[in-house]
Design brief:
globular; 86 residues
Length: 86
């Protein structure tokens, strides 16, 4: 079952901005690229080849975006370790 991704214009502007930003973390840029390619109709296997990630990774980020939008692509705190106080 393919998950069709639709990206609203405001979200597309944010994601494309991430791709253009020289200071964005590579993980966020990679997630933006996955979502934008999916929204443009590129199949999962082709995204795997173009982005250089695993198929489960592509599926995971497509699902997260579909459920939560751009906010779902942001990093979340890792479970277990408390953030260091500095």
């Amino acid at each position: 079952m393919a998950l069709n991704i639709t990206v609203e214009p405001a979200d597309r502007a944010v994601l494309e901005g991430w791709l253009r930003s020289p200071s964005i973390r590579s993980g966020l840029a990679q997630r933006a690229r996955i979502v934008l390619l999916a929204a443009d109709g590129v199949g999962t296997n082709e995204i795997v080849e173009r982005v250089g990630v695993s198929k489960p990774t592509v599926i995971w980020w497509k699902k997260r975006y579909a459920a939560e939008g751009v906010a779902g692509l942001e990093d979340r705190p890792k479970p277990g370790a408390a953030p260091a106080d500095r």
